[in-house]
Every structure is written in C-alpha cells, then in structure tokens.
Write a structure and sequence with these properties.
The chain folds into 2 domains: 2-96 and 189-220, 3-Layer(aba) Sandwich (Rossmann fold); 98-184, 2-Layer Sandwich (Dihydrodipicolinate Reductase, domain 2). Helix content is 37%, strand content 22%. The chain has helices at residues 10-21, 51-61, 76-85, 98-114, 138-147, 189-202, 211-220, and strands at 2-6, 25-28, 41-44, 65-67, 89-92, 121-128, 157-160, 167-173, 178-184, 207-210. Helix 1 crosses helix 6 (189-202) and helix 4 (98-114) packs parallel to helix 5 (138-147).
C-alpha cells in the first residue's frame, strides 16, 4: 500500500521505517498535505490541533486516515460528523499498541471483579517521556473510562521524565493488600505496528472506527483485513 505519513516526529519515523521494511511505499506529507492525493491511506501522528484539518483534507481527497495523535477529544464529535457527511473512513485510538488494547480488556475484567468488593479502591498511574505534551495520556484516560464503568477512580497520576516510551498501572488498594496491573512499552514499535495494521484494515471501508473495535473484529475472524 502507498501511505501518506502526516507527522514525522519520533513516532512518524518509526512508522516510516517499519512500513518500508514490510514493502509499503511511504510519502512524508508536507504542511500543505498535497502529497495525500493518490495514496491508499494516511497515518497521522502530528499534533492535536492539526487533527481536524488533516481529517478534512483526507476525506476531501477520498483517502482513509488512521489517527494516532491524542489530545483532540473535545473535537471528537465534530470530526466524526466530518467523516460521516463526506462518506469518509477513519480509525482513531488512544493507543495503537496491540498489548495495550489487550490490557484494556484485562482492566475491564479486573474492575468488574473488584466492584464486588467495596473495601478496595481503584487508582491509575502513567509515565511518559518529557516531550509528551498531553497529561494524563490518552491511554490513561481510556483506562479511567473503562474502570469507571464499575468503580470510582480518582485523578490519574501522570509523570513526565526522560525517555520513557510509556508505562500504565491500574491498581486496587485494600486495607490488607494491593493488586496492581501494569503495561510497560519497551519501544515505539508496538504502537507503529498497530497503526500499520489499522491502515491496511481501513482501505476499502467507510466509517468512523475506534482501534479497539477493529482489533475485536480482526481477532475474532469476523471481519478479516482485506
């Protein structure tokens, strides 16, 4: 497939390398996004304030888009409307790591279980590199959304330091003990591979999808990648 890469920071460079290693053609888009025309799909890891404009440009060009940028939740409804009204295609996600999306399911199961034992209180912690702008991270907010379906969760503790790719903890603390679940990213490759998988999946489809639902369909075999 021919991929238009929007955003060429740390994540963008990893996606470019892995996509080329897998035989895909990659075009790094300029600020004007003139390169997206003629591409099979676009992958956006740019900046939160650019997401809406990037989506508008892609749907206008008839190019499906995968958005891995976080921090644009306040515009989600408007972006979904743009995709729907223009018969476009988009996959978005707080985190494209396959492991993190499995971790979401583990956190969901655990929260449902601990909801039966009110003596335990839930907490969420996350750590990222000092260059990450949004805090808490989109992944941490997604975890809070999941756990909050069952039990009350306080503020997310967010740390920004050094070169941490990403660590997330969901814990349940009681009077006698604590149970903690954690996901630690060793590199950005897990996120990049998930985004490339999503890009292959969205080609030829229409609609507005969260990456977690895409993983569910692919893993169940009910909706295989084309």
């Amino acid at each position: 497939m021919k991929v238009a890469l929007i955003g060429h920071g740390s994540m963008g460079r990893v996606i470019e390398r892995l996509a080329r290693e897998r035989g895909h053609e990659v075009v790094v888009a300029s600020r004007e996004l003139s390169e997206i025309s003629g591409c099979d799909v676009a992958i956006d890891f740019s900046a939160a304030d650019a997401v809406r404009g990037n989506v508008e440009a892609c749907v206008a060009a008839g190019v499906p888009i995968v958005v891995g940028t976080t921090g644009w939740d306040s515009e989600r409804e408007e972006v979904e409307k743009i995709v729907a009204e223009n018969n476009g295609a988009m996959v978005y996600g707080a985190n494209f790591s396959l492991g993190v999306n499995i971790f979401y399911k583990v956190a969901d199961f655990a929260a449902a279980l601990f909801a039966k034992f009110p003596e335990y209180e839930a907490f969420i912690e996350e750590q990222h590199h000092s260059r990450k702008k949004d805090a808490p991270s989109g992944t941490a907010l997604k975890l809070k959304e999941i756990v909050s379906r069952y039990v009350e969760v306080g503020d997310v503790a967010a740390t920004r330091a050094g070169n941490i790719p990403g660590t997330h903890r969901v814990g349940f603390d009681g009077p006698a003990d604590q149970i903690a679940l954690s996901h630690t990213a060793r590199s950005r490759e897990g996120f990049a591979l998930g985004a490339i998988m999503a890009a292959a999946w969205i080609i030829g489809r229409k609609g507005f999808f969260e990456f977690g639902s895409v993983m569910d369909k692919v893993s169940s075999g009910a909706d295989l990648m084309p």
